[in-house]
């Protein structure tokens, strides 16, 4: 049994790779990139087209009142090589993040208190409440559209549990870059780089959108859709699927990645915001005002940035992991 990056890999049936033969002694140790961790997908090694050479010839930036010029920080279109790596198929959900909060005592997102989701960490205490207090929770905290007058205690608890079960499936939001980075590290993973995120979204051929090169309405949760919480349960849009089967990269929530906001090598664009002040976020989101419905934001090459302590109701993240850990990351090997 070999412990790798905090997790346990067991019974991976693949021959020892030459580069690890000496280090692992090839003594019954089974390891390989084809053993994909649960809830992740493998993005295979190779090149892909990153960035673009597009320009806002029609001056649409001014029409929509954007201060950030469109496309220019994507320049130039260039080929990038990557090794094998894993990336989460779906955005990190509340259910996963609650385990992190419970174990590390990290402050939860503020909306957990506002929406009642925080109670998921203490359902034994909720169940001990009197019926009238539960009715108050249902109507004033969870704001469920039910007639509590006709419900007994068990029915009220069932309604609360049903709501919490649904909220489990929503992507966690209102987390800073620091929160996202800490979660991924706690999970034995890391935030994806811009390169990794964009390749996972666009595929080797550098498609405009995860599903291809033609924009289509309704393919993702990005402004025109209607969900009670704004966000949809992770993985709800089968059409928002990249060539590597990664979901929700063109909608639902924008996502933190690891990088500082910097120009690409060979860029013809200069920005005062380049440097080590802002972290990059990728992908479109459901958008509270509908501006994210613009197809520009759903493009795999689109970049945006915020200070790393920022948090928003349509900003979450997913994690990545090396497919071939360095020897320093391999623990428990004799």
CATH H level of the largest domain: which superfamily? paralog of FGE (formylglycine-generating enzyme)
Number of separate structural domains: 2
**Which regions have little confidence, pLDDT < 50, spanning 5+ residues?**
1-33, 326-334
Q: How much is the radius of gyration in Å?
A: 22 Å
Instruction: Describe the global form.
Output: elongated
How many DSSP H or I helices? 10
Which fold does the CATH topology of the largest domain refer to? paralog of FGE (formylglycine-generating enzyme)
Protein structure class: alpha+beta
H and E string: EEHEEHEEHHHHHHHEEHEEEE
Order of strands across the main sheet: 9-8-7-10
Mean pLDDT across residues: 85
Distance between the termini: 11 Å
Look at the structure and give the CATH class of the largest domain. Answer: Alpha Beta
For the biggest sheet, the summary is: 4 strands, mixed
CATH architecture tag of the largest domain: Alpha-Beta Complex
The quaternary organization reads as single chain
Portion of residues in beta strands equals 5-15%
Q: How many strands?
A: 12
What does this structure look like?
The chain has a 4-stranded mixed sheet. It has a 3-stranded antiparallel sheet with strand order 2-1-12, with no helix packed on it. A 3-stranded antiparallel sheet has the order 3-6-11, with helices on one face. Residues about 1-35 and about 325-334 have low confidence and may be disordered. The longest helix is centred in the middle third of the chain and has 16 residues, at about 155-170. α6 (about 130-140) runs parallel beside α7 (about 155-170). It contains 10 helices and 12 strands. Helices cover about 25% and strands about 15% of the residues. β1 (about 1-5) and β2 (about 5-10) form a beta hairpin. It has about 325 residues and is an alpha+beta fold. The protein folds into 2 domains: about 40-90 and about 170-334, paralog of FGE (formylglycine-generating enzyme), CATH 3.90.1580.10; about 95-170, no CATH class. The protein has helices at about 20-25, 60-65, 95-105, 110-115, 125, 130-140, 155-170, 175-185, 195-200, 295-300; strands at about 1-5, 5-10, 40-45, 45-50, 80, 85-90, 255-260, 280, 305, 315, 320, 330.
């Amino acid at each position: 049994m070999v412990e790798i990056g905090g997790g346990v890999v067991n019974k991976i049936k693949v021959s020892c790779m030459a580069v690890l033969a000496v280090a692992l002694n090839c003594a019954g140790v089974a390891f390989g990139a084809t053993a994909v961790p649960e809830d992740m997908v493998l993005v295979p090694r190779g090149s892909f087209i990153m960035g673009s050479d597009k320009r806002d010839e029609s001056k649409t930036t001014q029409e929509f009142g954007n201060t950030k010029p469109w496309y220019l920080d994507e320049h130039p279109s260039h080929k990038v090589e990557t090794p094998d790596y894993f990336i989460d198929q779906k955005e990190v959900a509340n259910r996963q993040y609650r385990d992190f909060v419970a174990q590390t005592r990290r402050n939860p997102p503020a909306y957990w208190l506002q929406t009642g989701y925080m109670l998921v960490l203490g359902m034994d205490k909720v169940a001990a409440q009197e019926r009238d207090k539960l009715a108050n929770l249902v109507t004033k905290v969870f704001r469920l559209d039910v007639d509590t007058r006709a419900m007994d205690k068990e029915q009220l608890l069932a309604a609360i549990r049903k709501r919490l079960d649904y909220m489990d499936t929503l992507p966690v939001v209102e987390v800073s870059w620091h929160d996202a980075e800490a979660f991924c590290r706690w999970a034995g993973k890391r935030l994806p780089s811009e390169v990794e995120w964009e390749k996972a979204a666009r595929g080797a051929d550098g498609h405009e959108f995860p599903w291809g090169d033609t924009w289509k309405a309704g393919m993702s949760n990005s402004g025109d859709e209607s969900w009670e919480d704004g966000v949809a349960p992770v993985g709800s849009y089968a059409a928002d699927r990249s060539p590597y089967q990664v979901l929700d990269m063109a909608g639902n929530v924008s996502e933190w990645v690891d990088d500082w906001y910097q120009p690409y090598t060979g860029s013809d664009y200069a920005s005062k915001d380049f440097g080590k002040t802002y972290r990059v976020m990728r992908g479109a989101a459901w958008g509270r005002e509908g501006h994210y419905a613009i197809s520009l934001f759903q493009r795999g090459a689109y970049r945006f940035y915020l200070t790393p302590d920022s948090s928003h109701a349509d900003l979450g993240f997913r994690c990545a992991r090396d497919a071939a850990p360095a020897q320093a990351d391999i623990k428990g090997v004799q």
